[in-house]
Amino acid sequence: MPLNFKPTSYRLKSMSSGIEFHDSGWLLETPGEDQPALVRAVYDTIQPDFSKHENGFFRFADWLPLRRVFDGSSAPVTYKSERLAAHLGLQNLFVTFSGWWPEKGVFMPTCSFKETEAYSVCGRMTPDMQKKVLVVASAGNTARAFAKVCSANQIPLLLCVPKDNLDALWFSNALNPCVKLVCTSKGSDYFDAIHLSNIISGFEGFYAEGGAKNVARRDGMGTTMLSATTFIGSIPDYYFQAVGSGTGAIAAWEANLRLIADGRFGKHKMKLMVSQNAPFQPIYEAWKAKSRAMLPYDDAEARQHVEEIDAKVLSNRKPPYPIIGGLFDALTDAGGDVLLVDNEAARLAAALFETLEGIDIHPAAAVAVASLVQAVNDNCIPADATVMINITGGGEARYKAEHQLTYLTPDIILPPDASAAEIRQKIGQLKW
């Protein structure tokens, strides 16, 4: 439930023109500007106090665009690796873990860092938005996180998820009826779910969560970087994460810039080492071609590649890579690289992490671990460098073994080519 809280003081800034303006409620772009660009939150507090661990995720509230906060949250936790670090020959490897690992103090029942997005986005909502329905597109983990937070706080929510990803929508408790699910039919992918969500968001009474354009989503994800830096005492030299959209890496870069302005943790930019699960690799292809624009990607081929990869959540065909302030700019400014990992390497990395660190991890996190192994083997990382790896989800196997689960079933299933009229007619049958 919402708790008493003084809203965060911040402004929004266009990454295209640099103009700053007041956030009137749910702005996802700069009013009056035609050039596609992200907006960024500029917080009045330059040196926050992040020490209040009892506040869970909201210990980072000074650098989150919040109007309210909720109880029951958990923040990402960072620790210094010993066994994996020794195996790789790294002296300063730090793991930032999101998921279910009680011994480490991480209690995210969805087992994913997507909870950081959900709590932040819901905390940004204005009171009048409760009368409308939030629309969220997801390949799985994001839907689970938003369903958990919205259900607990009675926030009307419509999820758009590919039918093939339904196995990701598991919960330990039955959800509040305020959460509804519409699926794109079998054989569709995340892009199709996004397309559907965009249509529904245009209907009266619905509004889009906004994805990477929502400063609350990015700054929520950026708390992984804040967790690592405050634990280490300095900004890391390297940041490893697997990406589908790259929003988490953009968020880490933006948090890095705020930490530089803070002045207590160093003045350097950490290199962004992001990875994709081959053969689904549109960001990799664009970056290696030194192209801001995404390269052509045949729809049928893309869907086939999505079927082949283990890390289904890394399957965004339209990532915020070319947009001003997006991933291309983050990689260009901070330095780093885009790495490629196949299923076999990721599976080996997952087994290695569980053996050495003692917890199971999601396929996407396994891709990140495999990319770290690859970078070390290729002598890309100095042994004494301070390395952060963002384990975006873990402990799921353990959580499932310890809890009785229920699965969310679709209220509606629609083909990817459904007309707006058909979609409107079907959605009109749902009651919140």
Task: Please tell me about this protein's structure.
By secondary structure, the protein is α/β, with parallel strands linked by helices. It has a domain at 77-110 and 216-399: Rossmann fold. The protein contains 14 helices and 20 strands. The chain has helices spanning 83-88, 114-124, 141-152, 190-201, 215-221, 223-232, 247-262, 282-288, 299-308, 327-334, 343-357, 363-377, 396-402, 420-427; strands at 2-3, 10-14, 20-21, 39-43, 69-70, 77-80, 92-97, 100-101, 106-107, 133-137, 157-162, 170-171, 179-184, 206-208, 238-242, 271-277, 336-341, 386-391, 406-407, 412-414. The strands form six sheets. Strands 6-7-18-15-16-17 form a six-stranded mixed β-sheet, with helices on both faces. Strands 14-10-11-13-20 form a five-stranded parallel β-sheet, with helices on both faces. β15 (238-242), α7 (247-262) and β16 (271-277) form a beta-alpha-beta unit. α2 runs antiparallel to α5 (215-221) and α5 packs across α7. The longest helix is centred in the middle third of the chain and has 16 residues, at 247-262. The chain is globular and about 60 Å long. The two termini are 19 Å apart.
Gist?
By secondary structure, the protein is α/β, with parallel strands linked by helices.
Q: Tell me the Rg in angstroms.
A: 20 Å
Taking the alpha carbons of the first and last residues, their distance comes to 19 Å
Class based on secondary structure composition and strand pairing: alpha/beta
Supply the number of helical segments.
14
Taking pLDDT < 50 over at least 5 consecutive residues as the criterion, the unreliable ranges are none
In the CATH hierarchy, the architecture of the domain at 77-110 and 216-399 is: 3-Layer(aba) Sandwich
Broad CATH class of the domain at 77-110 and 216-399: Alpha Beta
Give a short account of the largest sheet: 6 strands, mixed
Range of strand content: 15-25%
Give the beta-strand count. Answer: 20
Helix content: 25-40%
Oligomeric state of the chains present here: single chain
The CATH topology assignment of the domain at 77-110 and 216-399 is Rossmann fold
Q: Mean of residue pLDDT?
A: 96
Strand arrangement, major sheet: 6-7-18-15-16-17
State the shape: globular
